[in-house]
Amino acid sequence: MKTFSVSKAVTALMLAGLVVLPLYSNLSGNVFILTLFTRIVILALAAASLNLIMGFGGMMSFGHAAYLGIGGYAVGMLAQEGIGSGFIQFPVALAASAIYALVIGTLSLRTRGVYFIMITLAFAQMAYYVASGLARYGGDDGLTVYKRSDFSGLINLSNRTQFYYLCLACLFAVIFLIWRIVNSRFGLVVQGLRSNEQRMQAIGFPAKRYQLVCFVISGTMCGLAGALLANNTDFVSPAVMYWTRSGDLMVMVILGGMGTLFGPVMGAVVYLLLEEFLSQLTEYWALIMGPLLLLIVLFGRGGIMGLLGRLNRG
Amino acid sequence: MAEPLLRVEKLVRRFGGITATDNVSLDVAAGELHAIIGPNGAGKTTLISQLTGHLEPHSGSVSLDGRDITYLPAYRRCALGLARSFQITSLLLDFTAADNVALAAQAHAGHSFRFFANARKEKGLRDAAHAALDRVGLLHRADVVVSRLSHGERRQIELAVALASKPKLLLLDEPMAGLGVTESQNMVKLLQELRKEVSIVLVEHDMPAVFALADRISVLVYGRVIASGDPAAIRANEDVKRAYLGDQHVVTHHG
Q: Largest CB tally within 10 Å, which of A8, A73, B173, B175?
């Protein structure tokens, strides 16, 4: 028998809200909210993927936004070259992200701690400058995606509601996968390595191999978010890979609760809604946002999920 | 003479100008409990680290069951049947006792690139974990998170983790460290049971324990083995007495 808990209730409420949102949007005629939440769902997917390595794997990657760009550019560049089929664009986006993760991971995982953070950051910045140099694909100015990925009648990405549900389905699928992964043999090894690498080596696990595979899975998932994001904005530019973007993703994960299944989703929703709401209030919204985040991180160890968990006990 | 289970030959490891392991050679026969003692700073932990693969020697060799393992990484040695416990308890603190032990069993049950099935529901792994916990008398604490266990209990889990990998040779780095009197006695009893099943290299400060348990003892001083033999011979050895000086009475009076 499962006991009631505040965090479970809030999570369920949030998920239900995400599912019925298009209904509300259609009934009220509020199109903006659907667009906003499509973005939130996509970035929640990216944050969830980051959480797999950061929260469960203990690998503090500060270059996760690179995959948003790689996934996005895969869609944008193929579209520019006249290949509009999503059945090609999406697999290419995922494969490109996986390959990038494999190369970056192989090099970065030779280091630990702060060095790992710095080297992942450095690679993402390299990706940023490479994209800026792609004159054929817009360079600094970015690349407009004139036609969204075409899934030949299966689903129409230009239809707001359909696109939203596609993103939401992807998010749920990724969270389901992460849930299975973290409880699997593989997941236990990766979490064990986060907890005590020396011990794991001593009982016979080659650390790097498992961490690398985890790194690649996470990057591939985030590449999916990138492909969706390019479709959402009809545009992709080097800016999506900038280090502040990676920082945003980290903040979402930490805000929501590292190493929890739904924390990153919660973090993305709260972070992006706050950003939206505060920036309407004042031009200097960051002045309010900053201290607010500090408070949550300082006093709510374990993020929002941690806070909700404590509510339950007392 | 049969091939020893563990053979260490002319092992040398330097740290700058200090030779922490100085031409150490020793054999551990199958079924033997071989204790390594020595005053603080004698290089016991350095030696153990080279046996487990956490530190590379500058020269010399280590072989297990006739196979050269001098430069194998730690995880490969473990697969060959070498398990260790740490001097300073090293466990997965945020995992339960059963999880800690089950992971050790998992490491020896094929690869772990299985992404979908719930590992905590794999009966084989859980059973192995429970058996090992039962062996050290901690079955009733199986589902407790390790960070909530006492120091003594954690020392026992260390042992259970090592046992779960079904090793040929167990390297125990000061298993009594920080234990109270009763806990120490329990640990000695436990080791007396375990030695019937597995060969053990025991590094320990607790002299009564060492003399009660060991088949053979090697004495390490300044990185060198100054004596090696059965407990009676070691107790009578003049060099050993001299090396221990203040601790002399400990060596002569117990056992």
A: A73
